[in-house]
Design brief:
By secondary structure, this protein is an alpha/beta fold. The protein folds into two domains: 46 residues; 238 residues, D-Maltodextrin-Binding Protein, domain 2, CATH 3.40.190.290. It is built from ten helices and 15 strands. Strands 4, 5, 6, 9, 10, 11, 12, 13, 14 and 15 form a ten-stranded mixed sheet that branches. It has a three-stranded antiparallel sheet with strand order 1-3-2. Helix 1 packs across helix 2. The chain is globular and about 55 Å long.
Amino acid sequence: MNENYTPDEVAQIFKISKHTVYEMIKRGELRAFKVGNKMRIEQEEVNRYKQSMETAPKQQPSMTNTIHLAGSHDFLVEHLVKYVAQQNIGLSIQPTYIGSLEGLMMLYRNLCDVATVHLLDPASKEYNLPFIKQLFIHEPITVMRFAAREQGLIVTKGNPKDIHGFKDLTKDDVIFVNRQKGSGTRFLLDYYLAEEKIDPATITGYDNEEWNHLSTASLISGGKADVALGIQSAADQLGLDFIPLLKEEFDLIFRFTEQNKLVLQQLIDLLEFTSFKDSLENKAGYDVSEFGKIIYEHR
C-alpha cells in the first residue's frame, strides 16, 4: 500500500525543516497533492526524491559561480539547470519557481540574476516586453527568446467530461485546479475568463491553487480534479489528454550588474555556442525555432 506523508513527516525523514519541504514543493522538486487544505506526499514520491539525491553528482560550492534564477516553472528550464551542471565549467543555476510576476519583481529588486517569464499584456496582446519596458528603465538587461510553447486544457485520458474550452469549466460536474496568483498561466486564464465574460465564482475549484504544471496535472491523474490550464509536456508526462488553445512566448531576462556580468555572459555564451539548442529539439509542445534570439536589450 502506498502510504501518504505530511510535510512534517517528510521533514523528519530527510532531517530538514518543514519550511524547506514546502520550498521544495513550490520549486517542483517534490511532487505533492492536497486533501482539503492539507498537503500530502506519496511514499513513492519520497522514495523517488531520495534516490535522485543519492545518485546526484556532488557539487563543490567553492568552485562554482552560482546564477540565481527566479520565475515561471517549465520543463525546459529544469533541463537548462541540469545541462549547465553537467558541463563541469564551474557554473551552476539555482532556480526558484515562484511564477512569472514574482520572478520579474525579484529581478527588479535585484534579488536574482535571471527571470523566466511568460506574461500576456491584455492591452497590447504582447508577451513580456510591455512589463519589462515599464520596470527596467535604467537597468542593463537582455531579453532572450527561450521558446514558444503550447498552453491548453489538461484533462483526464479520453476526456470523459467532454471539455473543449473555457466555458466548459463552469459545468456542474467539472472540478478545476488553478495555478497560483502571479503565475503567467493564472494571468492567461483570468484574461480569457474576462474576454469570454465568465465569472470565476461559477468554476468549481477556481480557488484551488498549485505551484507548477506537474502538480496540477498530478491532481488530474490522481482523480482529484478534471481539468487544468497548463502545458502539453505536463500532460504527456502523466499520460493525460491535452487540448491546445494557444501558443505563448517564454523568455529569459538577464539583469547585468558589476557582480554578475561575467557569469551571465558565460551563460549566454553557453546557450548560443554549445549543443544546448539541439538538446531541445523534438520536445512536444515547444517551438524552439527562435531560441537564442535577442528580442530586447538595454545596456
